[in-house]
Amino acid sequence: MDRELACEIVKDLLPLYVDGMVSDVTEKSIENHLEHCTECNEIYHNMAFELEMETQPTEVSDVKRFLNKTKKMYLLYGLGILSFIAIFVCIIVDLALNKGLTWSLITGISCLFADAFIYVLSTCRKNKGCIAMTVISIGTFCLLISIQITRYYLMGTGTVWIFRYGLPILLLWLLILWLPVLGRTFLKWNIWDCIALFMLLVIAGNYVTKLITGDYVWDDVLHMRGFIGNALGEVIGFILFTIIGRVKKWRK
Ligand SMILES: [Zn+2]
Cα(30) to centroid of ligand 1, in Å? Predict the structure, then answer.
């Protein structure tokens, strides 16, 4: 076999050789050839390097994906534990002060909402978001009724606030939570847009809640201090999540 022909045959066999798909005899012949032929040896090394580059990124991205998942899980667990502590503290303080529906309780329940909301949006596939929201809606509805019954009818403290304050506020905040979930489920919005919308709705929700409870003062909203207290955090959140949403879309 002349040298040129041998090179052609080796070059044809190299892809199979790199993949380890050749017989022992062929493998030995190719190895012999590569030892003496610099041209084929160079082609072989390039091929082996390319194969390595092809396989490496998937391994790296698998590891990255796993790390991202565990990071996300830790974040969610952390948020969950924090909000549960907040809710327990709120309930204990409420019971100790022997008041009806206090702002701390509303804040505590809002924490639970936000927590469940983030968890649901980050884990749901298809209509699981709506299913989870239905569970949350029914759960909070029952929680509110049981607080009213326990405090007013069983403990004999506080007033009947469920119709005047409880239900309107609950329905308002459920609507605020449902809208982004519906947008995510049926209009396929990305999660950051949903959170941005949620932030925007929270601003409206804060003002409407104050209207319902009678805490609303027109002067308050028109002044900077009122705005900072009622909406600044949410405005910053809205802008931040909108930007993240745009960047994520742009990077795709
Ligand atoms: Zn050769």
Answer: 9
Residues whose beta carbons lie less than 5 angstroms from ion ligand 1: 7, 37, 40
What are the tens digits of pLDDT across the range 166-212?
889 889 999 999 999 899 888 888 888 899 999 999 888 888 888 88
Non-local (6+) Cβ contacts of 117 within 8 A are 177, 180, 181, 198
Instruction: Kindly report, residue by residue over 79-112, the tens digit of the pLDDT.
Output: 776 776 666 666 666 666 655 556 666 666 666 6
Q: In 122-164, where do the E strands start and end?
A: none
| Helices 38-97 and 3-18: angle between axes, nearest 10 degrees | 10
| pTM for the model | 0.49
> How far is 230 from 54, CA to CA, in rounded Å?
53
